[in-house]
Amino acid sequence: MSEKKVPPADVARADAASRLLDRQLSEEWKEEDEAQLENWMDASLAHRVAYWRLEAAWEQTDRLAALRRPMRETPAQTAPTRNWPFFARIAAAVVVVGALGAGAAFYAAEPAAKTYATEIGGRETITLRDGSQIELNTDSSVRVALSNGERKVWLDKGEAFFQVRHNAKRPFVVIASGHRIVDIGTKFTVRREARGLSIAVTEGKVKLESSDAKLKPTLLTAGQVALADANSVSIAKKPVEELSTELKWRNGLVEFRYSTLAEAAKEFNRYNRNKLVIADAQAAKLTVVGTFGTNDVDAFVRLAQRVFGLHVVQHEDETVISR
């Protein structure tokens, strides 16, 4: 019986995924690394599947290790360590083997997983069988797996607003960037950014858990916003009105309250393929107040011209604004 050979492309994808996830879990992860990961994931569905398999394998292994820690309080375990590079190579090999079965191993692990995604400028509302809702913002992607024991959502890209029908017997868990957000009857937003994972609670409570054993679980209540990265979690309090402003995207709007022109341009660029470029530092510091349609770049450009007297040059894929 001949031995089945692993296609070189599968080996290369698994190796690339292991190196990216290894770096993401290190203290060296930077904004340019996040951009590299997103570009690699966007290149093909095969890249996404390779990364998802590896991330799921790591999360399962790390969780099992965390469960064992309290039972064995030996001196060697008092200082948490992560032998991730070694595990990444093992998991990558498992991923490659699984690829031989046309993805059977991946789908066996997540049998009910279904992917939902939006394009740049798009929005979508997903209503689950239990009545819970997930609203996807621009350029976002989630995978949803429902079972009798647990409801799981992986936020692989972008931003989503969750309205959860609480059920203590069937936890609702959102997984993103090495963190788990567990519903305790609530409405909340999760957004993946270059600087880390942002979680804003508008109603009820959630529990934030990290894959890093050094970070203790954190309870977030209404009005609290957490920014979590691989090494830390910071929490701030925001007024309800401010959180409401940040959620206007649900109605296709963006609102600016004394935002700089640079900040406003960056927000518009999330929703539009034609990018706004603020070409000089003085113009970038001007402040803007107002509400716009997420796709109404023309209205924003008119404001820049008529109110601030700025110069606008249109190019094929960008609009340059300057003094």
Itemize the secondary structure elements and their pairings.
Elements (H helix, E strand, L loop, with lengths): L7 H17 L6 H13 L1 H24 L15 H16 L4 H6 L4 E4 L6 E4 L5 E4 L4 E6 L4 E7 L1 E5 L8 E5 L2 E15 L2 E15 L7 E4 L2 E5 L4 E5 L2 H7 L6 E8 H9 L5 E4 L2 H4 L2 E7 L3 H10 L4 E4 L3 E5 L1
Parallel strand pairs: 5-7, 14-17
Antiparallel strand pairs: 1-4, 2-3, 3-6, 4-5, 6-8, 7-8, 8-9, 9-10, 9-11, 11-12, 13-15, 16-17
Helix content: 25-40%
Sheet/helix structural class: alpha+beta
Note the overall shape: globular
Discrete helix count: 9
* Mean pLDDT across every amino acid position: 80
Percentage of β-strand residues: 25-35%
Low-confidence stretches: 63-82, 95-111
Top-tier CATH class of the largest domain:
Mainly Beta
Topology pattern, helix = H, strand = E: HHHHHEEEEEEEEEEEEHEHEHEHEE
* Span of the ends, CA to CA: 73 Å
Tell me the domain tally: 3
Examine the secondary-structure arrangement and name the CATH architecture of the largest domain. Answer: Sandwich
Most strands sheet: 12 strands, mixed
